[in-house]
Write a structure and sequence with these properties.
CATH topology of the largest domain: Aminopeptidase
Strand order of the largest sheet: 1-3-4-5-6-14-7-13-12-10-9-8
CATH architecture of the largest domain: 3-Layer(aba) Sandwich
Largest sheet: 12 strands, mixed
Shape: globular
Number of domains: 2
Number of strands: 14
Number of helices: 9
Strand content: 25-35%
Helix content: 10-25%
CATH superfamily of the largest domain: Gcn5-related N-acetyltransferase (GNAT)
Radius of gyration: 21 Å
Length: about 375
């Protein structure tokens, strides 16, 4: 087999599991914390959460059993766009080995997945890129004939830090969901998040099926907010340790200084300490946020904060569109923030006049 043939994009199979896990480890994220996401023992566990149409594309390395790059594509058959129902695809999880960057690998992957999407008749897609990702600049500008991208909005990822307990929001009661709540949860979701771009459309049967088949994700993980007897909001608390763990490689000087005073204080407050390099960073997703107003989301966040504070988690992770009024719910929390840019991918250039920015967007950061 020639090197050219080895480097042609193809769809991954279960035999690629170990090589995909190794590629993820070889592509850490750098910042105040240097880290990567460990997807062992089953890389495809997260991919399966992206829907039945999810597939992983890979480019073989020159050494047998290695990969130079990977990316994934998923199909969301029913999402909201301006309140109407529309199928959508999602391109994500791009990884290129540090020794193979700077060539045409990214273009080959995107061309391969774009042709697949066209063959499936997929008209519109989305993708997300961390803010100021210089390596993706050329791709996002449409260079070299890659699919046209249009920036939609900035999504803000909040890592909510634990400190002292918080007073609950008055007038709003929060409790765990039960099977009996599914119908009301679906109705609330489609009414409220149906006003946001790209939110999935819920129905009772598909939600119930997912609840029984995803690690760490069950009906009892949902928290519901009520004003009187009226359901006004929901979130899900999701621990993904079974299939995705944040592994710490090292800390920048600023984080090391913080660690020196925070860890002794954490013992006094009964909080989890910042782990040493080489260990995982335990955290909890707060996702599927659906709230009639910021006060409702704040009540849910406060409840989640108090419920898991003092457990083994360092933070809870939540994300909203920076243009969404729900941003106000995060005021008063101690947070680290990272912005993620959301783009639409217009494969056929049919959406040139469409205003994707007229409504806030919804995005589930827990499936990335």
């Amino acid at each position: 087999m020639t090197e050219t043939r080895l480097r042609r994009p193809r769809w991954a199979t279960p035999d690629d599991n170990e090589a995909l896990i190794a590629l993820n480890r070889a592509c850490p994220m750098h910042g105040s914390i240097d880290m990567y996401f460990d997807r062992a023992p089953d890389f495809f566990a997260l991919s399966r959460l992206q829907g039945d149409g999810a597939r992983v594309c890979v480019v073989d390395g020159t050494e047998p059993g290695t990969l130079d790059a990977s990316a994934a594509i998923a199909h969301f058959p029913r999402t909201f766009l301006d309140g109407e129902h529309l199928p959508l695809f999602y391109a994500c999880d791009l990884r290129v080995h540090p020794d193979r960057r700077g060539g045409r690998t990214v273009k080959r992957i995107y061309d391969f997945m774009t042709e697949y999407g066209k063959g499936e008749g997929w008209d519109l897609g989305i993708t997300t890129v961390m803010k100021d990702n210089a390596a993706m600049a050329g791709v996002l500008q449409g260079k070299a004939g890659i699919v046209a991208y249009r920036h939609v909005t900035s999504l803000r990822n909040f890592a909510i830090q634990f400190f002292l307990p918080k007073a609950r929001v008055r007038g709003i009661e929060v409790r765990a969901a039960t099977e009996a709540d599914l119908g009301d949860m679906v109705a609330l979701w489609n009414r409220v998040n149906g006003q946001k771009q790209f939110a999935p459309i819920w129905d009772v049967d598909s939600l119930r099926a997912r609840l029984g088949n995803v690690p760490g994700y069950a009906i009892g993980n949902y928290r519901l907010a009520f004003r009187g007897d009226r359901l006004v909001g929901l979130i899900v608390l999701w621990d993904q340790e079974a299939f995705k763990r944040m592994m710490i490689l090292g800390y920048a000087a600023q984080m090391l200084r913080m660690k020196r005073w925070y860890n002794p204080l954490s013992r006094v407050l009964g909080l989890a300490p910042i782990p040493e390099a080489g260990h995982r960073m335990p955290y909890l997703y707060v996702t599927h946020a659906c709230a009639e107003d910021p006060e409702v989301l704040r009540a849910l966040l406060v409840h989640a904060y108090n419920e898991v504070r003092g457990n083994r988690y360092l933070f809870i992770s939540a994300m909203v569109d920076t243009r969404d009024p729900l941003m106000a719910a995060f005021e008063g929390f101690i947070t680290n923030q990272v912005d993620i840019e959301l783009f639409v991918m217009d494969e056929y250039r049919r959406w040139g006049e469409f205003d994707f920015q007229k409504r806030p967007a919804y995005f589930d950061h827990a499936i990335v």
